[in-house]
Amino acid sequence: MSERLSDFCRLRRKALRRNLPAKEREELLERLIAEDEWLARLSPESAAQYLGREIRSEAAKRWLLSLVFEGEGAICELARREIGKLRAFEDPAGAGGARLLSPLTRSLERFLSEYERRRGRSVAKWFLGFGEVSTSLALKGNETLLHEHEGRVWGRRVYKRMPVFPSRVDAERYRKIYFEYDRLLRREVGLSLPPTGVQILERGRAGVAVFVWQLQLPPQNIGPVVLRRLSVKQAIGLFDSVMDNLRLLFRANERLGREGVRIGLDGQITNWAVRDPQEGQERPDLLFLDTNTPLIRKNGREVLDTEIFLHALSPMLRPVVRRFFLQKILDRYYDPRTIILDFLGNTIVQGRPDLVGPFVERLEKRRTGDLEPYGIAPISEAQVERYFREDVFTWRLVRTAKALQEAASEAASARLADAWGKLKQVKKIWTSELFDVSDRHLEEAVER
Predict the structure, then answer these.
(1) Mind listing the pLDDT tens digit for each residue in 285-308?
(2) How many of the other CB atoms lie within 10 Å of CB of 167?
(3) What pTM, to 2 d.p., does this model score?
(4) How many angstroms separate the CA atoms of 136 and 134, rounded?
């Protein structure tokens, strides 16, 4: 390991040379990417053991571990930290811009930008899913790339592409909030999450692309796939596991609320995974997946810029949603009763309306039991059905506005056939089944 780390530092120093021939620079960047991937495959435990033998300073060990495991790659993280320190020293007020920066700082910034572009250049990918805020994808070519973490082997990284950010500063602000949310969920709430990170890619005038990654779980572990194959009795056990995790959230919010902090969470079954599905499990151990939209409030205000929630909407719909709906949408992720109601409504979406009655009955027992301190009002099957229908209407309205916007764009470009195709989608949105709930499509998308 020591030889690999020495090579890593030597290659990086060489990459900063301005007069390096183009071919040699290309080869050097490829080698750096390979070394970066090698570092990413290390487990935190093995790295900590090695550093414990080689380095005495506890501060230095913590710094090196955070460099490798808390960012989106050791090379990017190291360059970013050095740039931050140099900028703070050379232009502390930020008034002089690039004019006050030294050649070393500018060289580091060029290297970081070039390295990130090289690492993210035109890779083949599989699209795994589309959410309200992000798109999920996996990269072809790293199917055999395994990662060891906390004593288990994970699959390749799955990336969620966020809306484009206008500047690097905005992207870095999001990155900081993302890791704060990750820390709050793990340490303050006590949820289990997959290993994760954030990768930022500058695209010139096209803005800054941000990818949130997690290490992939097998498709049969994902909540909706698990739910669809369970008996009613087994499904109640899964429901209890979700409620156990939500209770941790409610309890943490009571404690943190005294400091003006509240943590939000989207508790739908699509955002949970079973760590190790086994026959006969009464309450399976769960992982929470949906961390790409950090939901944190401090003194009643969202820490994350709420405009990120509107990027996925049609421009014609954004002012309406911003004015009349956004606050209500965000509030439901912080209210215990609405979080549970949203979970129950999503059960119908996933093709298991037969579970609503048993879940409501089980909730009533827990509502007057271990959930009683959180003042959750009763929920009836009729209320779940009404919530589901309202959600369906909102979903169809948003998709209709998006289809109309795309049709207008195609017509303006004289692509009338494409515009007509977009308009025909509107009828399909309002007349077809809302969601395809078959396991086959999800499993094929992930396993291809």
Answers:
(1) 999 999 988 999 999 999 998 887
(2) 11
(3) 0.66
(4) 7
